[in-house]
Fold:
Amino acid sequence: MNTIRLTTAQAIVRYLSALKVKSEEGSVPLFGGVFAIFGHGNVAGIGEALFQYRDQLPTYRAHNEQAMAHTAIAYAKSQMRRRMMAVTTSIGPGATNLVTAAALAHVNRLPVLLLPGDIFVSRAPDPVLQQVENFGDGTISANDCFRPVSRYFDRIVYPQQLLTALPRALQVLTDQALCGPVTLALPQDVQTIAWDFPEEFFAPPPVEFRVPAPLETEIEKAAELLRQAKQPLIIAGGGVLYSEASDKLKQFSEKHGVPVAETQAGKSSLAWNHPLQLGAIGVTGSTAANAQAQKADVVLAVGTRLQDFTTGSNSLFTQARVISINANGFDALKSGAITVASDAGLGLQTLSETLSDWQSSNDWQKESKQKADEWNKIVETITQNRNVNLPYDGEVIGVVQSSSEQSDTHDIAVGAAGTLPGELHKLWRTVTPGAYHMEYGYSCMGYEIAGGIGVKMAHPDREVIVMVGDGSYLMMNSEIATSVMLGCKLIIIVLDNRGFGCINRLQQASGGEPFNNLLENCVQGNQGAPAIDFAAHAKSLGALAENVSNISEMEPAMQRARNADQTYLICIETDPNRTTEEGGCWWEVAIPEISPRKEVLEARIAYEQGKQKQKA
Structure:
């Protein structure tokens, strides 16, 4: 057996750079690159290896560890999990900064390879700089924080462990059911230890993405239930997009006359103007989708984990039997569903063949198309409103959407937290699968700009529009500088409502007094709340930017942003109190049983009434 002597770090990088996957362009690297912020825990080991292989596996630098992991995750999401990235940090704060991103990837079922540095296995310099010591267990380091938020965790203490650890990591990263973050903790001394690796280890076959087929018995049970249905509804989740099954979804819907509603992750699975497209489902859902969900006798959930925003905290379609097509058996079991453990596309196709010429009732199809049409008219009314002094998010979305429709770039809208996910879920329109990129599984503030870079790296020929509130912008904006450095042009729309407007409204809906959310309701020093110039700040990071004072100024600003060749930020002040009233449903937010405020007690009564609607 021929061998090659490499350090642990060199072996990792060489293995990653050798992995290929088939695409429309032919054979391409599975890993689009590695994001790295170096410190004493990785610069001499992984850093040296990345330099050696920089032509085969590019290294990108960011400004924040959590943010660069968000970028890597967004890249994988935009590539429909067919390609991905790795992330490396030093030990200590560099490593723990990744934990939030790991949780985000875990919740959203998205692949990312995390390579944090770790303490010395030898313990010769124990405790090392930035080491977190456990007084009861000498084997624990800060990297053990990754265990609950990783789909696979390993600590490499011998070079030869890579022969099993790396293939296992690859299996998790590329498996539909297991897909999520993988953490390989790398002690800094082990990174530099050399070993004679088999040469064949670095010539792996092309990566094949398994497409799990459904069991015949499960398909028969699902078909039997659907044949009895007169008013079925499809809920399309992210699995439809990740399995590239949009065409199969469309074919199933048309052949069997079943209307479609979309989750946040599944939005863009079906073109917005399809007659059977009901729009968003759930707490941030459309009037059409939620009305039909309340009447449906069978819900066919495809590639969705049925989280509370989709189910209205298990109160929205309690009268319906649920069939779940999902590659992940854990997710498929939710809501007491009849399970079809399968790839979304294969599951839909096989179920359709088994159903033959069965269709839902004509009245149901007619009613669903009518409600879809009514909802589209509501969206037009909201998004075309220009006669307003202080706009709210929906009206700003309308201007951005209008500029998108006038271009031919197939814009991708990116968002994550606050009010915007709800407004975009309801109002954003696209005919292109993947043109809506929302991180709402973890709803992580600060994802937006960093995530936008990952989307742009995946689709450099398309306009990426990041829509972010002022609160989320202030949490993580450093990656504007990264976007400029990497030449990843973004259009960033900052909607400034002077605080956390979304939670301020929730606070009041829960009976609370406005408190500690909008800047005006926070504890302040003698100088008062800051007057933040977001455009000036973005310019200081290298972007082009401007503040606009109203909707009419927004339209030409969008055109200037489109014409620009680098990241361009537009900031507009918005109303923190107004939202799209149409649509939505009950969502469980626990209200105190006792309080000196009568508003809280009234909210508690409404809360208890809402609880009555929940499925037992």
Remarks:
- The mean pLDDT is 96.
- The chain has three domains: 3-202, 216-374, 384-573.
- Residues 216-374 form a domain with the Rossmann fold fold (CATH 3.40.50.1220).
